[in-house]
Write a structure and sequence with these properties.
Elements: H1 2-32, H2 38-53, H3 57-73, H4 77-93, H5 97-113, H6 117-134, H7 137-154, H8 157-173, H9 177-194, H10 197-213, H11 217-230, H12 235-254, H13 258-275, H14 278-294, H15 298-309, H16 318-335, H17 338-360, H18 389-484, H19 490-519, E1 530-533, H20 534-543, H21 546-551, E2 555-559, E3 564-567, H22 569-585, E4 592-600, E5 603-610, H23 617-620, H24 644-653, E6 657-663, E7 667-675
Helix pairs in contact: 1-2, 2-3, 2-4, 3-4, 4-5, 4-6, 5-6, 6-7, 6-8, 7-8, 8-9, 9-10, 10-11, 11-12, 12-13, 12-14, 13-14, 14-15, 14-16, 15-16, 16-17, 18-19, 18-24, 19-22, 20-22, 22-24
Length: about 675
């Protein structure tokens, strides 16, 4: 249907353009053969109107200048007034308000002398539009209101459409939303009579926006959805649709209909991305992040706000930026990042003050025909200039005295300190000897404990790996036996393929662990630390999960930075791989997994965060114990065979720490802290 409408519009446009060209050619020929009289001026005005409507302003202005000379010489004031009016219209279209106002005023004076009420009304309506554009809303209102009465009495629908729209805009700009809504409805009714499709869309959109501003959300939705029915596949309508869809989503969000809100917002995001409409993308991402914050999907909201923030420099819309800053405050407050929240709040208030100031005091341009000299202000004299020389000398002597006293105090304290240091030197020497004996004994105890730990970890590792690897291989072997004996149908074969694939993936993961371990000479479970770039490990391990992530439609974000840790690389690789595997295992469709790192207390803090199903407090206590605790994932995935207890012991062997923070249905954060350099013994 939309394609048919678009095709019809194109055909009509071509026909109209052809008709205009034909009329223009006819008037041009007619003008060439006319005498230098009033009839020639009338023909010229008709041609100027055609040129103006076709937006050929340069040629129209050429004919206006030629015709003005003729009409003036003929004292043809009616024509001169009309020509001045069209000249002003062209200057208005070019945003040359100085020349526009000059010609409007000249035209108005002529129409007034002629007692031409319609001409006066036309000029006043146009003057109203110019003043509104310049920010002189009060003047604009007065001009437009004076024109309305005449247009209504004469039932001039085209002129009324423009005047009603001007008044609606002026009332809106002066925060008189009730009157703005009233005149938008009047403009809509006139435009429906005129079958002005573009005007209908404009008025309907204005009405919807005003209802949204008044927090009449269902009324706003009604008119936004009505507007969608008017749109075609034209480029301009696609841009408008990109604005309307997130607006509807925002209205549904206001009364917490999350499902419908998400539907419209996601459609809007897709459309705006395809149109490369940065303003539409920013608006949609703002609303999507608001939606996710309301549903406690903090990670996803942060991802969307980060994308939106990149667009704020390219989009000149203070209100959208204000909405974004407000959401930033909410996000960081939710995360407990109160310092960041305070900074965002400060930016928010600065911008809001700027907007409020602009709305409270509309921009008013000086009358271009007047020169206004603004008085200069006299600066306030500095009170300190009144201080006499005597007082300055007194302050100077006082300063010298205080400085001398301070110097004497420092020297006295230094003397006491040196004496005390000499007395303590012998005592420190004796204490150091005793400390050495204690350290040697503690070192022997630590070595013994370390060896016991290593044996426990090694035994536990091979126990888990051998058990789970055996299970996976047994599953594969059973499947192959069925195939060998030809005792399985095609349907049964298809049903068992996913299980076979899962067993193979588990076996592969376990073998990978063993291979990694062999690289670090696992036989003694003695860490072989080195300095390496942790970001490289993240990139390598994330690539292993691309297929699984795509299958589950999970968003995998790498927010890591280049930094170095001092640890056994193979051990760290195993831990990172298994933490990622767990994150994927317990994430749902659309969830976000984020890998990041930062400096903390001179160490590297690694965080693997997901927005998945989360972990209960009860199960959190079991995670790092040697209990063989495991659960199935969101797609019924089995564990990899390497428990978090092993991961914990590996990290601790490298002088690090590992812990978890999690909330059911909100997600989990696994933290690993490792040294950046060799720990000082």
């Amino acid at each position: 249907m939309k394609q048919l409408i678009t095709l019809t519009a194109v055909i009509l446009s071509c026909c109209f353009s052809y008709a205009q060209t034909k009329e223009q050619d006819s008037l041009t020929i007619q003008l060439a053969y006319q005498k230098q009289d009033s009839a020639k001026v009338k023909t010229s005005i008709e041609l100027i109107k055609v040129l103006f409507n076709s937006k050929d302003f340069q040629k129209a202005l050429l004919y206006i200048n030629q015709s003005e000379q003729l009409s003036t010489s003929l004292n043809y004031h009616e024509a001169t007034a009309e020509l001045k009016y069209y000249k002003a219209l062209i200057y208005t279209e070019n945003n040359d308000y100085y020349n526009a106002l000059d010609n409007y005023n000249r035209s108005l004076n002529l129409f007034t002398q002629l007692n031409d009420s319609l001409g006066i009304a036309k000029v006043n309506n146009s003057l109203g539009l110019v003043e509104i554009r310049r920010g002189n809303y009060s003047k604009g209102l007065l001009h437009s209101l004076s024109a309305i009465d005449i247009f209504e009495r004469k039932n001039l629908l085209n002129e009324l459409s423009s005047a009603y729209n001007n008044l609606a805009e002026a009332y809106f700009k002066t925060n008189q939303n009730e009157e703005a809504l009233d005149y938008n409805f009047k403009a809509l009714r006139v435009r429906e009579i005129l079958k002005d499709s573009e005007g209908i869309k404009l008025s309907t959109n204005n009405i919807a926006n005003l209802y949204a501003l008044r927090k009449e959300h269902r009324k706003a939705i009604e008119y936004y959805e009505k507007l969608l029915t008017y749109l075609t596949n034209s480029d301009s309508d696609k841009l408008l649709e990109g604005e309307v869809l997130p607006s509807i989503g925002e209205q549904y969000l206001r009364f917490r209909d999350y499902e419908k809100s998400a539907s419209y917002l996601l459609k809007g995001l897709k459309l705006n991305r395809s149109n490369d409409n940065k303003k539409g993308i920013l608006k949609t991402l703002n609303n999507l992040s608001d939606l996710n914050l309301q549903q406690n999907k903090v990670r996803l909201a942060e991802y969307q706000l980060n994308e939106a923030y990149k667009l704020t420099d390219d989009v000149d819309d203070d209100n959208l930026l204000l909405d974004h800053l407000k959401l930033r405050v909410q996000l960081d407050s939710t995360k407990g990042n109160y310092k960041n929240a305070f900074n965002w709040q400060r930016e928010y208030h600065d911008l809001k003050s700027k907007i409020d100031e602009a709305n409270a005091t509309p921009v008013v341009f000086d009358d271009p025909l007047e020169i206004i000299n603004k008085p200069t202000t006299t600066p306030i004299e500095n009170n300190t200039a009144n201080i006499n020389d005597k007082t300055l000398k007194q302050y100077k002597y006082l300063t010298y005295g205080l400085g001398a006293l301070l110097l004497i105090s420092i020297l006295a304290l230094l003397s006491v300190f040196l004496k005390r240091k000499a007395l303590d030197a012998n005592a420190e020497e004796l204490a150091a000897t005793n400390k050495q004996y204690k350290l040697e004994n503690a070192s022997l105890l630590e070595q013994t404990r370390h060896l016991e730990e290593m044996n426990q970890v090694k035994d536990r590792l091979f126990s888990i790996v051998s058990h789970d690897l055996k299970d996976s291989i047994t599953g594969v072997k059973a499947f192959l036996d069925l195939l060998k004996e030809d005792s399985i149908s095609q349907e049964e074969f298809d049903e068992l393929i996913p299980e076979l694939s899962e067993n193979a993936d588990n076996a592969s993961a376990l073998l990978m662990n063993l291979l990694n371990w062999s690289k670090s000479q696992m036989q003694n479970l003695e860490p072989k630390p080195e300095q390496f770039n942790i970001q490289e490990v993240f990139a390598e391990k994330m690539s292993l999960f691309e297929k699984k992530v795509n299958q589950k439609q999970i968003i995998l974000l790498d927010e890591s930075i280049k930094d170095y840790v001092y640890a056994d690389r193979s051990m760290v690789e195993i831990v990172i791989q298994n933490l990622l595997a767990n994150a994927v295992k317990f994430s749902r469709v659309g969830d976000v997994i984020t890998i990041s790192n930062r400096e903390r207390n001179g160490n590297v803090l690694i965080c693997i965060e997901d927005t998945g199903v989360g972990i209960s407090k009860e199960n959190q206590e079991k995670l790092f114990k040697n209990s063989g605790f495991t659960t199935r994932g969101t797609s019924h995935e089995k564990g990899t065979g390497l428990g978090l207890s092993i991961a914990k012991q590996m990290i601790e062997l490298n002088h690090g720490k590992i812990w978890v923070e999690s909330e059911p249905n909100l997600g989990s954060k696994f933290f690993v802290e490792l040294p950046k350099a060799k720990p000082i013994s």
